[in-house]
Amino acid sequence: MFPWLMVLIAGACVALIALFMLFPRRRAHRRRNGGRHWLRVLFGLPLLLLGIALCLLGISLRNYFMLEGEIVVAQIVLKQTGVQRYSAELSAAGQVRSFDLAGDEWQLDARLLTWKLPALLAGVKPLYRLERLQGRYGDVKQELDAPRTVYSLHRGGELDLWTLKRQYPKALPFADAQFGSAAYLPMLDNARYSVSLGPRGGLVARPADAATHDLLVQSGWLQE
Description:
It is elongated, with a radius of gyration of 24 Å. By secondary structure, it is α+β, with helices and mostly antiparallel strands. Helix content is about 35%, strand content about 35%. The strands form two sheets. Strands 1, 5, 6, 7 and 8 form a five-stranded antiparallel beta sheet that branches. A five-stranded antiparallel beta sheet has the order 4-3-2-9-10. Helix 1 (about 5-20) runs antiparallel to helix 3. The chain starts with a helix and ends in a 5-residue tail after the last helix.
């Protein structure tokens, strides 16, 4: 079962228990036991807040994925459409999306969240989330003046563990570190790349086939 789903189910169960405590079915029984009713409210409200917090945490975890050794997190296929213009097909998290990129190189960014004791002993794996895809220019001066293309790869408007940890460091006491990683390679016509992420963090981009390797050699990016 996915970790985010486990947290979401736990939160829903806690919230349901709290609702039963706060709103017993028999109102007559509640009137005869006024003292017990206030005890229910005293313990039920914090329990309800805990359930809601767990549900929000589960929703946030849904946007992250666990690292199990080095894994391929994305694949990129490029087609040249003009001078320093490319169509990029990005396959990640079971989705295929297309983007128009300007420049000489593509760059993929990711966020990572690691853990410390006791979460580490419990076997909680590092989490990652792809952050953005962008085109970049080899010439720094051109990077300042030429049109730029940058795309977000995640949905906004939800509770985010990364933001929560940065703004409220004590909110996630078991989180060890949160950092970003990026990888980039040249944009070449008909090039195919794979992007991997290891358990210690760090994106690594590689040619996905021999043809792309040859293109990199021909462009001078790689040496035989």
